[in-house]
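User: Hey, my collaborator sent me this sequence without any context and asked if I could get a structure. I don't really work with proteins. Can you help?
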Amino acid sequence: MSNSKIELLAKDLNHQGGVYCPNPLADMKVWNSHPKVYLDVAHTGAAKCPYCGTVYALKNGEHFAGH
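Assistant: No problem. I've predicted the 3D structure and written it out in structure-token form, which is a compact way to encode the shape of the chain:
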């Protein structure tokens, strides 16, 4: 279990406002982690992975302006 917090810039999110976990930003290797999960960060400003507990959150002052 990771239980770490990864602070993201708006540019780190995909065009829908999310990220995938496991994620290289969290220093995770896909081959030795859990299944790939999509996490919606833009709507609430943070999302927690149900597998490893890693929290992905926008840094203070960052805003996602999705299309």
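In plain terms: DSSP finds no helices and five strands in the chain. You can pass these tokens on to your collaborator as they are.
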